[in-house]
Specification:
Layout: E1 9-13, H1 19-29, H2 36-42, E2 48-55, E3 60-70, E4 73-81, H3 90-104, E5 109-115, H4 119-127, E6 131-140, E7 148-156
Parallel strand pairs: 4-5
Antiparallel strand pairs: 1-2, 2-3, 3-4, 5-7, 6-7
Helix pairs in contact: 1-2
The chain binds coenzyme A (COA).
Length: 157
């Protein structure tokens, strides 16, 4: 059992130097995982927006969000919070910060999609007043489990 980590957490814009920590956390939570080079590429791309959540003591990355902008639309590409730092509002802060960054950059809507069986993420997005837009049957193809449907959400900015 992991010890809960309850300490001050600050958000900042991600840089390529954050890629290693983000890929390590991503690999613990997602399959297929994004590698370090993928994060580094996003964190240096002008159309991408990356934020990391860092605990102060111990000084470590406890969450991240990656989004991208296209014209007046933004999309969340990935979001994660480490298991020991959950239910402290970190994902909420990451989404709200990304939404504000996208809004200031001219986006009018923030899209995302999530596996239909991901009850934690579904509850999070509904709490943040994302509107459900549709379902993509069998969208997530996985190596060791049947395909999962995706639910798509949108938030007006
Ligand atoms: C989904 C995830 C990002 C939530 O991160 P978090 O920092 O714990 O979320 P928050 O603390 O901001 O939660 C805000 C609200 O979301 C809902 N929520 C979050 N986790 C939940 C859970 N496990 N069960 C039910 N509701 C949950 C609750 O309404 C919560 O408010 P509350 O704590 O006041 O009840 C995190 O569980 C995670 O990283 N999961 C694995 C990766 C993942 O699924 N990413 C999203 C892919 S689209």
């Amino acid at each position: 059992m992991l010890a809960a980590l309850t300490c001050a957490v600050s958000l900042r814009v991600a840089t390529p130097a954050d890629a290693e920590a983000c890929s390590t956390l991503h690999a613990e939570l997602f399959e297929p995982a994004w590698d370090r080079a993928s994060f580094a590429s996003f964190f240096s791309h002008p159309a991408a927006r990356g934020l990391v959540a860092r605990s102060i003591a111990p000084a470590q990355t406890v969450g991240f969000i990656v989004g991208q902008m296209a014209a007046d639309e933004a999309e969340v590409l990935t979001l994660a919070v480490s298991r020991e730092a959950r239910r402290q509002g970190i994902a909420t802060r990451l989404i709200e910060a990304l939404a504000e960054t996208a809004r200031v950059a001219g986006a009018r809507v923030l899209y995302l999609e999530v596996a239909a069986e991901n009850t934690a993420a579904l509850a999070l997005y509904r709490k943040l007043r994302f509107a459900e837009r549709g379902r993509r049957p069998g969208y997530y193809v996985r190596a060791n489990a049947p395909p999962a449907d995706a639910v798509t959400f949108a938030l007006a900015l």
